[in-house]
TrEMBL record:
This is TonB C-terminal domain-containing protein. Keywords: Signal. Residues 1-18 form the signal peptide. The keyword Signal applies. It comes from the Bacteria.
């Protein structure tokens, strides 16, 4: 215990002197200059996929048949509306009906870093 007290009495004047030394003001100025030159960093807040808020009227598909699944590829724009609809895997008449049904869907727009964004989507229909 005596050694601890003796060591602290020896070190104490050195620490007191270090606390009383003046602080230089150049470091904050240099940091401010570096911050002005540095590029802005964007924080990634995540991706939120579009959510369908309306459903397809199933009556559209009555009488349509296809030996393979029908695929509708499209983009959901920032307002939640399907754009650039491409239908694969069926004849032209059925593709027109599927395209019309998909165009009536509405989505809650997807978000990227908190901003609405256009997202690609794929829907598969089994018309067998």
């Amino acid at each position: 215990m005596r050694k601890l007290i003796a060591a602290s009495l020896f070190v104490l004047p050195t620490l007191m002197h270090a606390q009383q030394s003046p602080v230089r003001a150049e470091a904050p100025k240099m940091m401010a200059a570096a911050a002005a030159v540095a590029p802005k960093v964007s924080t990634f807040t995540g991706i939120i996929a579009p959510k369908r808020i309306t459903d397809i009227d199933r009556a559209v598909f009555v009488g349509l048949t296809s030996a393979q699944p029908v695929v509708a590829k499209f983009n959901v724009d920032a307002q939640g509306v399907p754009q650039n609809i491409v239908v694969e895997g069926t004849n032209e008449a059925a593709a027109a009906k599927v395209s019309d049904a998909v165009s009536k869907l509405r989505y809650q727009a997807g978000k990227l870093n908190g901003q609405s964004y256009e997202f690609p989507m794929v829907l598969k229909f089994d018309l067998r």
